[in-house]
Design brief:
By secondary structure, this protein is mainly alpha-helical. Helix content is about 60%, strand content about 0%. About 35% of the residues are buried.
């Protein structure tokens, strides 16, 4: 089978991103919604540009890993034909759900993913606020795809399609879409919940393209009219400095893990347990906050 040569659709989409953001600014001003703060938006764009630059290196590592598994250990050989695009669509989206969920439930992965949640605003520029470190290790959630027999180029293409889809859902300009669409697909409403720091909304709606995984695995939460989304983190980092945004949680995590007198097990647990966990029992994780909120409301 000849190796397919798919284009890098993210690079081709950059002009679309710019036009879409300008259109969103126009629409939200018309609607009387203040969604953009210039310093915050520029920080998000800087994070996005850094992600694209570092992507030239991280994607080389990802492709090398995918090809190594595909060439040496694949169970099947899935041909590049019309039905393989259907299979990879569902397989990639399933992998994305678990990557995204674990990125909220394990601090080692949260250290890179927190970047995307660090803005207290929600607009299309927020979609560009991407990690500088995650690309070098989060791809492990997709390693089963080349093992199964999907060609690495096909996997990379579908991963890009998923990211491209998720761009447009970062907006307050769209309220609710038709019920059938909201029932199956990730939407601006579903993803606004995901970016909420409200206890009810924490660690919910991890979908990439399909919201069905959240509904099946019990992590779905609809956006409620009487619970306006408060964007950002439980403890916001309050900085526009891209370097701090990229690495501040790594510093906090390693400080928690390797400073003070702790057992080796507890040091390791600081990397594995959810954000907010502390070895002495004084920490509060999102499930605790959610439980307390439900009991008192």
């Amino acid at each position: 089978m000849q190796d397919p040569n798919f284009p890098n659709i993210i690079l081709y989409a950059i002009p679309f991103f710019i036009v879409a953001m300008l259109l969103e600014i126009f629409v939200t001003i018309k609607q009387g919604i203040k969604t953009y703060e210039p310093k915050d938006a520029f920080s998000s764009i800087a994070m996005g540009l850094g992600n694209v630059f570092l992507g030239f290196f991280s994607k080389a590592l990802v492709l090398l890993s995918f090809f190594y598994i595909y060439e040496n250990f694949r169970i099947l050989t899935i041909p590049i034909t019309w039905w393989c695009f259907i299979l990879i669509f569902f397989a990639d989206d399933f992998a994305y759900y678990w990557f995204h969920r674990v990125s909220h439930e394990c601090r080692l992965f949260w250290a890179s993913h927190v970047v995307h949640h660090s803005s207290q605003h929600y607009n299309l520029s927020t979609a560009l606020r991407q990690t500088w470190s995650g690309g070098f290790y989060t791809f492990i959630f997709w390693l089963w795809l080349p093992l199964l027999g999907f060609h690495p180029a096909l996997i990379m293409l579908q991963m890009s399609i998923s990211l491209l889809y998720q761009f447009w859902i970062h907006t307050e300009a769209i309220n609710k879409l038709p019920r059938w669409f909201e029932a199956v697909f990730n939407t601006p409403s579903h993803h606004r919940v995901h970016h909420g720091s409200n206890p009810l909304y924490l660690d919910r709606n991890h979908a990439g393209i399909l919201i069905i995984w959240d509904k099946f695995f019990g992590t779905f939460q609809p956006e409620l009219e009487n619970e306006k989304v408060v964007y950002g983190l439980v403890k916001n980092i309050n900085t526009y400095n891209p370097i701090k945004i990229a690495f501040i949680e790594w510093i906090h995590m390693f400080k928690d893990a390797f400073s003070g007198r702790k057992s080796f097990k507890n040091r390791l647990l600081y990397l594995i347990k959810p954000p907010g966990w502390k070895h002495d029992g004084t920490g509060t994780v999102s499930e605790d906050l959610r439980k307390d909120w439900l009991e008192n409301n």
